[in-house]
Design a protein that fits this description.
Layout (H helix, E strand, L loop, with lengths): L4 H11 L11 E5 L2 E4 L4 E4 L2 H4 L8 H13 L11 H13 L3 E5 L2 H18 L7 E5 L8 H5 L4 H4 L9 E4 L7 H4 L4 E6 L2 E2 L5 E2 L2 H14 L2 E5 L13 H5 L5 E4 L10 E5 L1 H4 L15 H39 L3 E7 L2 E6 L4 H9 L2 E2 L1 E3 L3 E4 L7 H23 L1
Parallel strand pairs: 3-15, 5-6, 5-7, 7-10, 10-11
Antiparallel strand pairs: 1-2, 2-3, 4-12, 8-9, 11-12, 13-14, 14-17, 16-17
Helix pairs in contact: 3-12, 4-12, 12-14, 13-14
The structure holds pyridoxal-5'-phosphate.
The site of pyridoxal-5'-phosphate (PLP) has 14 residues, from α5.
Length: 403
């Protein structure tokens, strides 16, 4: 029997904890950059499950690897060895320069692990007072208590205090304030190289230099939150590399499993030396399915996918800048590679809704920003199609306003 959107909505409204405000569509299958809903309608997907489906949907190679693993062995726990954690970790080390990996199941868990490992580092040094963090205004790091503590939005934080602290937030547009925010109690600075949920706002080279200087001067650790910017999304393995950042720790997630839940904390050797068995752990973390998927995704990235992002990313930017010239409601085009934001003069909700009605999925973030995160293997023809559809959306909205 066919399930309808109304059936699903009714059942969810009675039985799911209402933590999400969903859009009125239910998907049943996907292929590449296309999704299909319960009525068989096709959508061009420029959200990718919020930067997760980096190889698109139902990628044949990833599907085969997952299916083979599911039919062989899914999970044994971290009591025993299996081959895939090391296979994924070797590739992460090659891409990031950080030699050691801890596997978990999500971006928030990866951030959580980094915060813990930073504190553990100072504890091992005997500097037990170095427990604080400096984070960015506009940062989003996840919703577990530690990750929430370095997330800036008061709306997310207020109902859940007291949070982990002390945390000092500074304005990413004022690099000169960083030095003063650091004290002899600061364990680490945590910062996304591009604020993702915060509206696709790239860190300035001046701010990156301020982080490098401050860390070199005070020994403070730098945690790069690359959950959204990492793994090829910007045309670099990690966007901090483009800025010359030198992280001691890095959180990754989202795209790592191409849709299979997995996150990771990557650490330098000096931080790794401070961590002992039992300090951290996860029952599911590093299971065979997730790490096999991750090894597959990482192979794709290293096998030319990042170069592809760079090439189509330039085309995407050109098309978006031309779009902005045609529509005055687009006040700024930001981002790099396949991580793009259009800042509007109005709330972005109407654009998201109108685009979806016309068969294009885009996402709203920071109220006025349309966020575009297509699969990394998107073709230029689909970029053209998406931008043409957005052109139609903005034109329709303009004529509505004029009526
Ligand atoms: C930069 C950043 N860090 C952490 C997270 C949390 O990841 P997750 O939702 O997988 O827990 C996100 C999610 O959007 C993110 O964008």
């Amino acid at each position: 029997m066919k399930v309808t959107l109304d059936d699903i909505r009714n059942r969810e409204s009675r039985h799911l904890l209402q933590t999400y405000k969903r859009q009125p569509v239910a998907f049943v299958r996907g292929r590449g950059a296309r999704l299909y809903d319960v009525d068989g309608r096709e959508y061009l997907d420029f959200v990718s499950g919020i930067g997760v489906a980096s190889l698109g949907h139902a990628h044949p190679g990833l599907t085969a690897a997952i299916a083979d693993q599911a039919a062989t062995l899914l999970h044994t726990s971290n009591l025993y060895y299996h081959r895939y954690q090391a296979e994924a970790a070797v590739r992460l080390a090659q891409l990031s320069g950080l030699p050691r990996t801890f596997f978990c199941n999500s971006g928030a868990e990866a951030v959580e692990a980094c915060l813990k490992f930073a504190r553990r580092y100072w504890y091992t040094q005997g500097a037990t007072e170095r427990t604080g963090f400096v984070a960015l205004e506009g940062a989003f790091a996840g919703r577990t208590l530690g990750a929430l503590s370095v997330t800036h939005s008061e709306q997310y934080r207020a109902p859940f205090g007291p949070l982990v602290g002390p945390v000092t937030f500074i304005d990413p547009l004022k690099p000169e304030t960083l030095a003063a925010a650091l004290t002899d109690r600061t364990a680490a600075i945590i910062a996304e190289p591009i604020l993702g949920e915060g509206g696709i706002r790239p860190m300035s080279p001046q701010f990156a230099a301020a982080i490098n200087d401050a860390c070199a001067r005070t020994g403070t650790l730098y945690i790069a939150d690359e959950v959204q910017t990492g793994l090829g999304r910007t045309g670099y393995p990690f966007y901090g590399q483009a800025l010359g950042l030198r992280p001691d720790l890095m959180s990754v997630g989202k795209a790592l499993g191409g849709g299979v839940p997995i996150g990771a904390a990557l650490v330098s050797e000096r931080v790794a030396q401070a961590v002992s068995p039992g300090d951290h752990g996860s029952t599911h973390g590093g299971n065979l399915l997730g790490t096999r998927a991750a090894a597959f995704v990482l192979d794709q990235l290293m096998g030319g996918l990042i170069d592809h992002v760079r090439t189509v990313g330039i085309h995407f930017e050109r098309r978006l800048r031309a779009l902005a010239l045609r529509h005055p409601s687009i006040v700024e085009v930001r981002g790099i590679g396949l991580m793009r934001g259009l800042e509007l003069s109005m709330d972005a909700t109407t654009v998201v809704d109108t685009a979806r009605d016309r068969g294009l999925l885009v996402n709203r973030t920071d109220e006025k920003v349309v966020r575009l995160l297509p699969p990394l293997n998107i073709e230029a023809t689909d970029i053209d199609r998406a931008v043409d559809m957005l052109d139609g959306v903005f034109a329709a909205l303009r004529s509505e306003v004029q009526v």
